[in-house]
Amino acid sequence: MSALAQTPPINMEAVSRIKQAIADGKYPINLDLVSERLMESYIEMKG
To answer: Which intervals hold domain Anti-sigma-28 factor FlgM C-terminal (predicted)?
Structure first.
């Protein structure tokens, strides 16, 4: 419970706006960067 008190609150309005922008195809997503980070995580997990 104390760990939750130390984290910043989540702005659900902003989250909703971002989700809608993604659904509308209006949120820039760098697929190369996402792929790179996924591979890094996989390699780290396997390491």
So the answer is: 2-40
Tokens standing for 5? 């008190």
CA distance 27 to 25: 6
- pTM for the complete prediction? 0.48
Domain coordinates in residue numbering, the chain: 2-46
Cα torsion at 4, 7, 9, 10 (round to 10°)?
-100
How many residues would you count in the chain?
47
Which residues are CB-contacts of 17 (< 8 A; sequence separation ≥ 6)? none
Per the prediction, the chain carries an average pLDDT of 90
